[in-house]
Amino acid sequence: MTNAALTPAEARAKFRAGLRVPTSGFCAGWAQANLISLPRDHAYDFLLFAQRNPQACPVLDVTEPGETSASIFSGDLRTDLPAYRVYRDGELVDECADVTGVWRDDLVSFLVGCSFTFETALLDAGVPVRHIEAGTNVPMYRTNRECRPAGRLSGSLVVSMRPVPAELVPLAVRVTARYPAVHGAPVHVGSPGLLGLEDLDHPDFGDAVEIRPGELPVFWACGVTPQAAVMRSRPPFAIGHAPGHMAITDARDHDYLS
Amino acid sequence: MTNAALTPAEARAKFRAGLRVPTSGFCAGWAQANLISLPRDHAYDFLLFAQRNPQACPVLDVTEPGETSASIFSGDLRTDLPAYRVYRDGELVDECADVTGVWRDDLVSFLVGCSFTFETALLDAGVPVRHIEAGTNVPMYRTNRECRPAGRLSGSLVVSMRPVPAELVPLAVRVTARYPAVHGAPVHVGSPGLLGLEDLDHPDFGDAVEIRPGELPVFWACGVTPQAAVMRSRPPFAIGHAPGHMAITDARDHDYLS
């Protein structure tokens, strides 16, 4: 069975059993989500940060403190993503496949929309998605654009990049604009220097992809933005997904169609 | 000068000077907002309630504790709405034109999208708006639909109602669906009994309007929903706008066009 044909429960079982790969291309038609888990004391700051930066942080679901599943994610948030990142005082201290051992009862988990969700729609519309063709992770970059801060949280916008043939850029914008809850339309087309990005070959997260002649780099807001804010703002503890290694939810792509 | 031609600053000056009227039809092209101010200790519960009930509670702006203006509202939140409601332990204890005397430094103010914002677009599209024709307040009703609770906050959905000629219902849906941040498309068309509403002539808030032959009652989610949750959930203190007597913001209607 191809990755695209898996159900969310099947994919989560594979990840729980140890499969550790980026989730782009998995479970066609099902929404994927970024994870950020923070102590309850920091939950208001994050929810406000998300309200102030909705394109980067579209919140799909919020758990009660300590809960290990969510209304749109019936799996176990501690084991059913392919990989996690653990932060203490803003420092990345571990990347691992299971966070059961460091889980805390005061953690509020936020599931934030992920642009992998609209990739099926891009493919259906005839827009190629290079990192799926290449079987690699999407490239992600920290930009020079500041998010609006909230309480103790501040950070810069992180974007994902997909090269799009110039003539298909309007179609790519139109298709993705229909999914505002999973980052929606691009934030930028074609001039990485204006985002402070000098070298697309060395992404901050994920893998570089080829940009072919006649293609423009197109940038979408990315749900790794909360982790960039954690690294800058240094809450005492946080867990995120490993970039590109998402929570595959029980919600359908079309649940987020505007 | 007509009410529609006023700028937000001009309208706010009139309200500050004592004008106490519903704001429907004021300041064409400018967004209006519901106000709910709660102690900082209850701010997370409300922001989570809004995240879980986005059609009723689309949050446009959130202040820091004690702040009396907001990024989209350069006036004074304590004086520049036409009228306020003050709640203690969930009981309505005052309706007044100025809340300076009861203001608290720990109040976080939430500006929540208001359906008055899309009424200009409805009129432009040729959809009549009865309460503007009649010069009265929009009728609002508490329904039997429960909102998803959050922390200590729970309550039922409040809706506003506009009678729409049957042949214009699809147009009214399409026009308003383009404004998701100000309640968007209707939640219900034509069968008030299914919302638990037996008597449209006696709204819970605002004024009744005539429903003429050939018209259907069309119901939109309403930003009075937070005040219904306050009445049910009894936080120690809260301030809201008097229903229909909104904050007129410095944001344009089209800022909220999807």
Automatic annotation (TrEMBL), chains A, B:
Source organism: Prauserella shujinwangii
EC assignment: 4.2.1.-
One matching Pfam family: D-Glu_cyclase
Protein keywords: Lyase
Gene Ontology MF terms: lyase activity
Protein name: Putative hydro-lyase B0I33_112158
Lineage of producing organism: Bacteria, Bacillati, Actinomycetota, Actinomycetes, Pseudonocardiales
Membrane-spanning residues: none
UniProt-listed InterPro entries: D-Glu_cyclase (IPR009906), Putative_hydro-lyase (IPR038021), UPF0317 (IPR016938)
Assigned protein family: Belongs to the D-glutamate cyclase family.
Record bears the keyword Transcription regulation: no
Record carries keyword Lyase: yes
